[in-house]
Amino acid sequence: MLNLPAEFISKYQKLLGQKQAQELFDAMNQPAKKAFRINTLKEQREVSYSLNQPIPGLKNAYYGQINGQDPEAISGLVYSQDPAAMFPAMIADIHPGDKVLDLCAAPGGKSTVIAEQLKGKGLLVANEISNIRVKALRENLERWGVINALITSASPEKLVQPFTQFFDKIIVDAPCSGEGMFRKNPEAISYWSQDYVMTCQKRQKDILTEAVKMLKPGGELIYSTCTFSPEEDEEIVSWLVEQLGFKILPIKVNTSAVESGHPDWANNDPAIKETLRFWPNDNLGEGQYVAKLQLVEREKSTSTKVKKRKTHQNKAKLTSSESALVAEVLKPFNLPLELANWSTSCLVSQNHVYLPAIEANNMHFKIISNGLELGILKKKRFEPSHQLALILGQRKQKQVVNLGKEDYAKYIHGETIRLESALHGFVLVSCQNCVFSFGKITNNVLKNFYPKGLRK
């Protein structure tokens, strides 16, 4: 039984009335909803989990709990996510070729949805200011097989300089008081107060003030929170319209398990009814609020551009000898179209060979990764990256060793595997036909290339 603060109970009794408030409180004491999505970037989409309970209004999303150590999860075929939290990135209606910013991106659920919609075309900038949480963001985007992402760890104001009026769409899943996650994370109750709600509102306004500077005229902002608080939801949307030049757009979702926003909880703008509220008592997922807005067309910025500083980042094209080393490793594999021109497009930085998602010399903040890292050049050899294995695993391959469950458990623990195989050299390693790593076969021994930081 959740120990909800008296101030919280009183607040929602006033907002919702006694009956609906009690329905909310009762739902918050029920088990949290578990769900997962299937990665549509992969050609092979068969999973061992039941698909008997699809989530209404979403494609390739199902109720059920996955095991994070199963081959489907390790390979990036499935992703565990709260059902309601799946909607904001879907609502964004992103198209291949768009330039999209996921401003508060960790752990990566929304970024993986964005990447699926982009289909390897355009650009995803996935930003997370927390040095700890950005590691999970990178791991999840690598598992998902995302090839066109720039992953950054910076405050919003630092992103503005290279990205002024740059993005077609920006998703801000804002830091909030987390009321909608109380039953999933009861610890969040301990730091809730009305003062904390107002602190969150101020932080959200600060973030959005910078975000709007990076949106193209006519571009779209998807604003979401996992809280019920009108101060962080309808009031923020009213503020975006009144102060930052947005208009509210209608949202189409194919489910009745949602409620419209409440104009009377803000400035009585009837357009707020176009925003969406997800309540636990609607039995879809956890609490969520989503609004879709468009920046009213205005003239392009005429402010003086900041002069680019010269940088010395020691980045260069591949030499012919380096290219030959990479080509020898890649030759047995079926490459995606995005890698067709790797030999002329790749850059080398500190012996790391990568295909950049964007030219980054004028970006003076922490870049976690830029595009696809193919691997690392070592003395007279090339070692392919874990990220490349997961990209190649999206397509059918012949240079693959498929392990049984027992050998799979040993491999992700870091052990070498003795086997009989006609293959040699670098191979993709899979289990249940889910590619999750590189390996190297020498004398019937599969040398382990599963990253040490991921081993269990």
From TrEMBL:
Domain (SAM-dependent MTase RsmB/NOP-type): residue spans on this chain: 1-296
Residues holding S-adenosyl-L-methionine: C104, A105, A106, P107, G108, G109, K110, E128, D173
CDD domains: AdoMet_MTases, RsmF_methylt_CTD1
Biological-process GO terms, alphabetical: RNA methylation
NADP keyword on record: no
Active site, renumbered: C226
Molecular function via GO: RNA binding; RNA methyltransferase activity
Keywords for the protein's UniProt record, in alphabetical order: Cytoplasm, Methyltransferase, RNA-binding, S-adenosyl-L-methionine, Transferase
Highest rank taxon of the organism: Bacteria
InterPro entries assigned to the protein according to its UniProt record, in alphabetical order: Methyltr_RsmF_N, MeTrfase_RsmB-F_NOP2_cat, MeTrfase_RsmB-F_NOP2_dom, Nol1_Nop2_Fmu_2, RCMT, RsmF_methylt_CI, SAM-dependent_MTases_sf
SUPFAM superfamilies documented for this protein: S-adenosyl-L-methionine-dependent methyltransferases
Family per record: Belongs to the class I-like SAM-binding methyltransferase superfamily. RsmB/NOP family.
Name of the molecule in the record: NOL1/NOP2/sun family protein
Lineage of the organism: Bacteria, Bacillati, Bacillota, Bacilli, Lactobacillales
